[in-house]
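Hi R.,

Here's the chain you asked about this morning:
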Amino acid sequence: MQFMILVVFVEPEAPGNVGFMARVMKNFGLHRLFLIKPCALGEEAQYHAMHAQNVLRDSVTYPSIGQFLENEQVDFVVGTTGTAGGSYNVPRIAITPEKLAESIDPDAKVALIFGREGDGLSNQELELCDVVVAIPTSDDYPIMNISHAASVIFYELFKKVKPYPRGEVRESSRQEREDILAYLDQILEELDYPSHKHQKALTIFGRIMGRAFITGREAHTTKGVFRKIRDRLIKD
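And the predicted structure, written out as tokens:
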């Protein structure tokens, strides 16, 4: 699966932020950048783009969002806002980046529009969008830097394309986890662990392993360590 995402940055004010946007795009496999009435970019944008200078170099400029939408013929338009609204601010009723990633059609041509660093997108501009995305943040400092916000959204989309972990990693089997608990059971016996705490300790350790989703390799190593501890206790 591969999303066809067009990233649109409206009236960027700082060339460094454009460079950062290109950089984070390339981190998550995105390459099509569109700038609406941008500031002069120059060397500062190239410097902050680092190894994503090709994204910057291939970017396309438009005079307005309307012109962009008319020329690019996208299937779906996603706006972004740092100030989500409720029932009485309809243009700013928003979903989370995670919900967007779950709902988006991977075959659609999608425009993801980011607003100005200072003011974001206006209500009129958000009304051009099919859906609006907002990132839940702390009330103490709710507004994120534009490239930081972009990275959160790109990450949620990227997870659908390339789930981690990389490579072949086998999750531990129930039998492997039970073997670990069997060794722990024997260790507690050798330690004369109080009987009324014994089963609780086994249950707690089993829950820890369950939450950790340990791999087969991790289970194998843990079993080895517990076996040696048991053997040393028996020997002594």
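The chain has a mean pLDDT of 90.

Let me know if you need anything else.
M.
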